[in-house]
Amino acid sequence: PDPKTPCANWMGGAPGYPGHNGLPGRDGKDGKDGLKGEKGEQGVQGPKGDHGEMGLPGQQGLTGIPGYPGQKGEKGEGAFVYRSAFSVGLTERAPHPNVPIRFSKIFYNEQNHYDASTGKFFCSIPGTYYFAYHLTVYLTDVKVSLYKKDKAVIFTYDQFQKNNVDQASGSVLLHLSSGDEVWLQVYGEGDNNGVYADNINDSTFMGFLLYPDMDGH
């Protein structure tokens, strides 16, 4: 039998006092990493930091692809074009001397700067003009002059040859001021008015603006 049982006539003693704490044991081996935990909630944003110093410029990037063409813009205002021109022909034979020849056959006079009732061109746009005339000569001699402001500028003379039709012509560049007038007229006596025109022969007078005086416009 168990020696501590009453049958062995053994008496239990009083419990002993607890012993002193033993020395700490040695560190155990590191355990294996556990599973990754769930993402935590976002923390409160911290205060804004100070501006850092400007860095060095970076390298130039590659050229970009050209963009699409833009929409068509609205039509702009065009520059004003100054126009002044006329071209006329003679319908009367043997015009009177020492007065403006009235060319009443109108080829072109869109601006109405030539007056068929007086035979004079009236300058409305100051500038440089070109004038020319081509006259049929028949029956007698022709002496004509081109006038500007009551002063003859150029003269043309053609001697008539019997049994023949001749031509006389002239041209000139003139600077005109606003209000100046230009015309043709026979000068001398009546035996110099051989300017002629019929259904197969024309005598013409024309002029046009080359360029205006931009200072006045």
TrEMBL record:
In terms of InterPro entries, this protein maps to:
C1q_dom, Collagen, Collagen/C1q_domain, Tumour_necrosis_fac-like_dom
**Where does it reside?**
Secreted
Bias (Basic and acidic residues) ranges: 26-41
Pfam families registered for this protein in UniProt: C1q (PF00386), Collagen (PF01391)
Q: Which residues form the C1q domain?
A: 79-216
Q: Report the GO terms under cellular component.
A: collagen trimer; extracellular region
Which SUPFAM superfamilies does the record match to this protein?
Answer: TNF-like
This protein's record includes keyword Secreted: yes
User: Which key words tag this protein in UniProt?
Assistant: Collagen, Hydroxylation, Secreted, Signal
Annotated region (Disordered), positions in chain: 1-69
Keyword Amino-acid biosynthesis set for record = no
Q: Which first-to-last residue range defines the signal peptide?
A: none
Q: What name does this protein carry?
A: Adiponectin
Q: Which organism is it from?
A: Opisthocomus hoazin
